[in-house]
Design a protein that fits this description.
heterodimer, A: about 250 residues, globular, B: 10 helices
Chain lengths: ~250, ~260
Amino acid sequence: MRVKRVTKLRILVLIVSFVVVELLCQFGLIARFTMIPPSEMVIGIVGLLLSGKLNEDMATTLSSVGIALVASVIVGFAAGVVIHSFRRVRRTIDPLLATYYSVPVFVFYPIFIVLFGLTDIPKIVIGFLYAVAAVVINTLNGLDRIPPVLVKTGRIMGMTRIDIALRIVLPFAAPYLFTAVKLAIAYSFIGVIGSEFILSNRGLGYSISYAYNNFDNLTMYSLILFILTFVLIINMTLHSWEKKLMQRRGFA
Amino acid sequence: MTARRRWTPPEQLVDWLVLFAVLITAWQLAHWWAGDVAMTTPFGTIAYSVKTLLSAEFWPNVWATFSAFLIALALASAGGVLIGGILGYHRLSGEVAEPILVGIYSIPKVTLYPIILLFFGIGIEAEVAFGALHGIIPIALFTMNAVRNIKPVFIKTALVMRLGPRELFFSVLMPASMPEVFTGLRVGFSLTLIGTLLSEMFGSRSGLGFMLMNAIGMHDMDVIMSVTLLLALFAGLINAGLLMLDRHLHRAPVQATMLGG
């Protein structure tokens, strides 16, 4: 019953914050040119979605994010497995991985524009570069946690290397791979939308900055809320799936 | 794979030299592939970096970035430790708040940048706000877990020994949660730096991020590459130092911890 109470309280907190922001905006304590009331943002999203004005930008951004995400998960996972199997490589690369995220990858965006032109490819590359390290780090983390006794037992029972990989290593590392995918989603979005902010001619990030430059707060806030809600829904879906997996394994 | 690491220093040194050689070679190859227009050579970049370090216009920008960064880091650390401490101590609030914090932590925060600009205007305030926004949540999450995971027996013992609230805090709670809180601060450090730099890149009139955007506008590859190199070196060195301290505090090897955006 306690869990229920926590959930109820959480929903209450969210509703109260929504109402507080709404009231602050409605009574002019937050000026309209700074922020519009949340209720108008929600109506704005519905309007934008129904009008179909956004379809093309949405398709551009989401497909770029999708490609960056898939590529980073595949490459990152493969790289993680390879790095993990060579201990010296691992030890040498670890500090590099630890500092990877202190380099602002966006700096290289113009270089990719020079190389690939002002297409979707530079955004995808930036999204990929942002996401791939998260996947590598979490894959390594997952592989580290596998108790050696499980692998040994498998070997004693005469399992082949492939069997061990598929039946012991992969299931055990799965939760960490989930974390990797969740982070990769956030990072691909950051890479793609950030790139669109800096320089681009289409996409949701471009539309947000276009609306910002034209003082079109309704469109801007609606788009931002749309992206954030979208990412949150994906993450929550993954989270509940992950929870089910964990429960099955008996960690609840 | 966490076999005891019994390595002798020379082997480690060899590995580092090999890594360095591989990186430089890869960079040089990339230069040949992409051409002068996209990338400068490793040695050219290093030479230009030295020149940049000696130039007069570089340091005011460094100062602009670092004053914003330090204020943001101070705000993120103080706020994060305070929020995390309260949420860790008061279990119910912690349980209520944790998924909300994780949710905010996992959204792409660049998207919020225009909102920050509307609230704070272009300038140091926006940089500080954006930097602190990146750092505060991981610090709060790590602190919350640190406080939650303090063994109850420590607190019980302290109560049995009739420690006052202040002694309880300074001689039991603080030392017990220190290692995890430090990990949070380390992660917060990197994220705050990224946030500050991003904010400077998207809209500001001074600082290293501004210098980069200016160079991007004028297509000055020398400046782009050398400022990036200097930033990466700075962040890398500080991070390596913090990582060492972190390992020392945990008295165990710490792997690269994950950062969120």
